[in-house]
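User: My advisor asked me to double-check a structure prediction for LysM peptidoglycan-binding domain-containing protein before group meeting. I don't want to rely on an old file, so could you generate it fresh from this sequence?
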Amino acid sequence: MSTLSLAPVFAAAPTRARSSVRLTRRGRLVVFLTSLFLVLAVAFMLAGGAVGTDEAGQAAPTEIVQVTPGDTLWGIASDLATDGDVRSMMTEIERLNALDSASLSAGQKLRVPVVTD
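Assistant: Sure, here is a fresh prediction for LysM peptidoglycan-binding domain-containing protein from the sequence you gave:
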């Protein structure tokens, strides 16, 4: 009869030298808050470059159009769009009148850009 004996072969993992600096919970909080403060300070400094001027801008020339029954925003914009770009004219009319949607009601007055040919 034969016997088999196995000896465990474990290689000892090299141990890393432990650093002498250890952060406590309060130390980690201080490092985190300091980093957060620095990031916010840099963000505020970069955002400070975007400022307006003291002079008023020029208002775009507009005229008033009254909506009649059956008029649509697409129809009004297509009458005004000399370059054929109806969608951009619709967007401009919506912006000028602060419209939430393209629905119009009869009798409504719209401010539209002045068309110059």
